[in-house]
Amino acid sequence: MPDTVHLMALTATATLSTQKYIINSLCMQRPHIVYVPPFKHNIIYCVGDKPSNGIASSFKAICEALVKNKKMDRTLIFCRSYRDVINIHQFFKITLGDHWLEPPDSPDYVKFRVVDMFTHCTHSSVKKKIIEQFSSESPLRVLIATGAFGLGMNCPDIHQVIHWGLPQDAETYVQGSGRAGRDGKQAISLIIKQPRDLDRRFTSEHDRVLSQQVSLQTLYFIS
Question: What's the CA gap between 39 and 105, in Å, rounded?
Fold first, then answer.
């Protein structure tokens, strides 16, 4: 395009490497970049190590809270693999027993479940129903999902987002944690990682979004 034509590029979450890719792809010369940090002041960012007995120790407290309070704040659990989604989903279903549904004597349909899962394998009609349930007043309190439930999902009252294992990259983490606290209330974003899981994706020169734009609180409350 001629120099007299002005060009504006708009995107959502973008790490430094993504910004560079956009600029190079569009052949932009010395662009003026306007951005705001993706982190929200109402979210506490935490990191904890996976316990030795894994899923049971990590999510037992949430199950106990669900039994006591069917209106507890909503929790979104992100997993990197379909297998992890299935395993955590099964743990909740077995542990909750009669409390899996609300009311307990209801048929096992989406609209009565307290916990559900959302992956690329979930049928499109079921996905739509789960999104409706998780975005409005319903029994659904906990959703276990892969990255299929991510950018563009606007569920206002999610106050806890848990990443089971390190996210794929910094951008994925920012998008996932951004599902929390969209109503402006206090929320938590927690990564539960392997004790010796050192991943360079979060410290590379291209993806310094975490270190540059926020001072993370590291709370090791999972031993």
Answer: 42
